[in-house]
UniProtKB/TrEMBL annotation:
Organism name: Galleria mellonella
TM segment ranges: 26-46
Matches recorded under Gene3D superfamilies: NAD(P)-binding Rossmann-like Domain (3.40.50.720)
Presence of keyword Zinc: no
Keywords: Membrane, Oxidoreductase, Transmembrane, Transmembrane helix
Domain of life: Eukaryota
Name listed for the protein in its UniProt record: Uncharacterized oxidoreductase SSP0419-like
Length: 273
């Protein structure tokens, strides 16, 4: 047999290494009750991780937890409102009490509230959006960081292409929160690099989740979005989840402070409103 054929003998081993790549890793996913976070929680569970699911909606959390348990070990479910400081402390406390460590933090929970400059409600929209999309991320990251330093773990922040372009003027606070998130990712990456902790971001374009329903953007549908984007499609949550897993894995050991766009070509051209 030619020497190059021996690589096929290694294949089963390579596959098992991939499957076990998150064995016994403790992974916190915020916004795990739906969409991208739910897909990520399920994928991490099937790869052997001890998953900590964070969200508010109990029935949605329970459904996703059952899916996780079917593919791997049952997750720890923490019902928490990320706009509440005490809830954020509880996420870290309960995780460390149960598992003793944190390997990966996925800051995924996010929302958008209508609020334009002339709308009269921009401050309220700004405060509420920033509380969840930015302040909670900063707070949770700060509380988790000492544990991530111990495990040489890493962080993945879910941003949006709205941080690079203003998708809809009336959702300005959302775009502002995501632009700020991108820069926090870079700053935290620089600070934590000397501790061996990596920090990366992902900026999706349209992804078929409950996001439109949850933000009450009644004028938009996934079909309209699909037509407006160059690849004429929206992403499935699993596509973003795969990218999260890659960045959280050792395969990405050289990647930090990066921001991965997965937007069906949206940033390439002007998209009519
Ligand atoms: N879908 C898209 O087109 C798209 C595009 C670009 C970026 N993103 C980003 O992707 C991330 C995930 O969104 P998604 O599309 O998967 O939307 P989604 O289906 O609406 O999910 C949002 C998640 O965030 C959680 N969440 C929101 N506010 C929370 C709070 N105060 N406390 C705790 N959890 C909270 C929700 O949990 P509960 O409902 O249980 O509270 C839910 O699990 C967000 O950061 C979003 O900005 C989405
Ligand atoms: C939780 O989600 C379910 C299913 O989408 C929905 O019917 C219910 O109203 C939500 N509960 C709360 C408290 O928002
Ligand atoms: C993203 O990751 C970094 C790293 O921990 C964190 O400090 C930052 O606040 C996070 N979120 C945002 C908002 O970038």
């Amino acid at each position: 047999m030619h020497i190059s054929n021996y690589r096929y003998l290694l294949l089963p081993l390579e596959i098992s290494r991939r499957i076990m790549s998150f064995a016994n890793k403790v992974v916190i996913v915020t916004g795990a009750s739906s969409g991208i976070g739910a897909a990520a929680a399920v994928l991490f569970a099937t790869e052997g991780a001890r998953v900590v699911m964070v969200g508010r909606n109990q029935s949605k959390l329970t459904k996703v937890a059952e899916q996780c348990a079917r593919g791997g070990q049952a997750p720890l479910v923490i019902r928490a409102d990320l706009a509440n400081d005490d809830d954020i402390k509880r996420i870290v406390d309960e995780t460390v009490n149960k598992f003793g460590k944190i390997d990966v933090l996925v800051n995924n929970a996010g929302m958008a509230i209508y609020g334009g400059v002339l709308s009269g409600n921009i401050l309220k929209a700004y405060d509420e959006t920033m509380a969840v999309n930015l302040r909670a991320v900063v707070h949770l990251t700060a509380l988790a960081a000492p544990y991530l330093v111990k495990t040489k773990g890493n962080i993945v922040n879910i941003s949006s292409i709205a941080g690079k372009m203003v998708l809809k003027a009336e959702y300005l606070p959302y775009s502002v929160s995501k632009a700020a998130l991108d820069h926090f990712t870079r700053g935290a990456a620089l600070e934590l690099a000397s501790s061996g902790v990596r920090v990366n971001g992902i900026s999706p374009g349209p992804v078929k989740t409950d996001f439109i329903e949850n933000t009450g953007m009644s004028e938009v549908t996934w079909d309209i979005m699909s037509n407006a984007f160059p690849l004429k499609r929206c992403s499935e949550p699993e596509e973003i989840a795969e990218l999260i897993l890659y960045l959280a894995s050792d395969k990405a050991k050289g990647i930090t402070g990066s921001d991965f766009v997965s937007d069906n070509g949206g940033l390439l051209q002007y998209i009519p409103a």
